[in-house]
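Handout, page 2. Input:
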Amino acid sequence: MTNAQQVTSEILSIEPVGSYYHVVFSAPSIAEFVEPGHFVAVAVGGVGSAMLLRRAFSIHRATPGHSIEVIFAAHGQGTEWLSTTRRGDLIDIVAPLGTPFALPNQPIGAVLVAGGYGAAPMGMLAQALRERGCEVEVILGAATETKLFGVLDLARDADSVTVTTDDGSSGLRGRVTDALPNAIERINAKVVYACGPMAMLKAVARVASEHGAFSQCAVEESMACGIGVCMTCVLPVIGDDGVTRMVRSCVEGPVFRGDRVRWDDVHTVPSDVFGAPVVGGH
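Output:
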């Protein structure tokens, strides 16, 4: 986070987009440092608010020298407040934060998988991959058509887009993982990038491994401070040495290798994790 800055940002625009909100923050000194997968931590509630914890959002787009953009759903007190802000309002933000997606050094096949507004960072990622000569397929999933985001934009940014909905209201009926094996095989994908709910990421990581693809998952964990201090966003991840450690999503993540996250142990501290207390020990 060497390039992260805390600034007072003016809201340039905020408007509903389907089930979500699209907000553009003035960020001329920040935008040039943004890479796909970075996030922004936004102070909510205004001056003197009892809402002390920031809200973390994936950065949707960045326009160097000008702005960063965010997509969010109003589903809690903080995001409900943010949805009531207006153009010209001033908000404290910190960005760019986190470890972004790793890009390949040579042209390969890549599948991008997103659930709901987890699609937010995928356009920027698809553009970066295609600039490197990669073939890019996107799979977008949601419970229903109104929960989809970015279908038309991603159709321009990627080579192809597949849509899935749980209820069949748009695209294929089913889940993103139903369409993933064919997408991997179709372009001989070497990497799968994913962003969305934890259950989806767990399933995507499993399918990718089963089909010989490396996976990178941007996890959705509560990131209260965004800078690695508060430890609210830790989860168990296996290191290069085979040892499991509790690592911070906001600093070491939010992007992790899918085969290294212990998905079944998220929200717990496994007994074999490095530094865990020894039961019955001395």
